[in-house]
Every structure is written in C-alpha cells, then in structure tokens.
Amino acid sequence: MAVTLDIPLQVYRELRQHLLPDNSRLEQGGFLFARCSTDSERNSDFHFIAWLPLQRVDYAAQYQDYLELSDAARARVIKRAHDLGASLVEFHSHRGSYPAAFSPSDMQGFEEFVPHVHWRLKGRPYAAVVVAPSGFDGLAWTGSPNAPVQLDRIDTGGKELHATALTLKRRRRSADAAI
C-alpha cells in the first residue's frame, strides 16, 4: 500500500513559506482540502482542492512546540471540508534541525481528533503532515480512524518528496520493546 499527496508546486511553496516563516519560532499550521481516491491495491492518492493557512486567531494555543486549534477554527475547517465533499490534510511545522516526525503530543491529539473528523465527514480519509526545515513525515487514516498508515510521498507535479517515515518506525520499535 502506498499513499501519495498531490499538490501543485506553487501551492507547496506557499505552504512551506507559511509553515516555516523566517521571522517566527512558533509552530504554524494549515489544512489542505483534497479528494481521496483508492485503487484496487489499496493505494491512496489525496488530490489537492484548496489550501487554508491558519492565522493566530485560529489557535487556542500557539507555542514553539505546541499548537491547539480553537473550537471555532475546528468547526469551520470541518464544515468547509463537508461543503467541498473533501478529505482533510492537516499540516503543521516543527522548527529545529532534527528530522521531521510527529511528537507524542501530536499522536495523542490524533487519537481524539481523527475519529471525530472521520465521523463528521462520513468516513472520508484524513491525513496529517509535519514539516521541518529538513523534510516532512506524514500519516494517513484511509480505513480505520484508529490505525494510521504511512503517507509515503508528496508529488508537486514532477518532483517527488519522500517522507522520513520516522513516526511509524518509532511506534513499531516501542511496540516491539514492550513485548
């Protein structure tokens, strides 16, 4: 199974500029609205529809290492996805020189938010991408809202960017160590 996110190059550039601005040390976020298609081999592609960069007013909390959406922003994003008949792809940034991976608090947030969005959007897939200066990692919930799979790559129309895949590797190592 492979999961790909298709984004026009110009949108990807705008997205990275918003998430990793030169003049801020705070995490930034946004949502991409996408159509998701799955083939007979269970490969899934998220296809760009629209990009919504989040602004300061959209956060209940915004720090160097933590973001929390306001209830109003959460409702507005879900309603827009519903109106577009789209899946949501969450984006946020992690500043620093380390490779991109979701934090434990990110994973905890997904445990609550993904099932809620899955229910509100009538089972549509959900994806999340964390962007760092050195790259990105991504997860997708294409079936169960409790079982993420790797979002393998972002295709910007000729240039393929590959995920670090560190988040799921770390989860597997932790699960193996617990046995």
Overview of this structure, please?
The protein has a single domain, classed as Cytidine Deaminase, domain 2, CATH 3.40.140.10. The two termini are 26 Å apart. It has 179 residues and is an alpha/beta fold. The radius of gyration is 15 Å and the shape is globular. The protein is 31% helix and 34% strand. The protein has helices at residues 9-19, 71-84, 104-120, 166-178; strands spanning 3-6, 29-38, 44-53, 59-62, 67-69, 87-93, 126-132, 135-141, 149-150, 153-155, 160-162. The protein is built from four helices and eleven strands, in the order βαββββαβαβββββα. It has a nine-stranded mixed β-sheet with strand order 9-8-7-6-2-3-1-10-11. Strands 4-5 form a two-stranded antiparallel sheet.
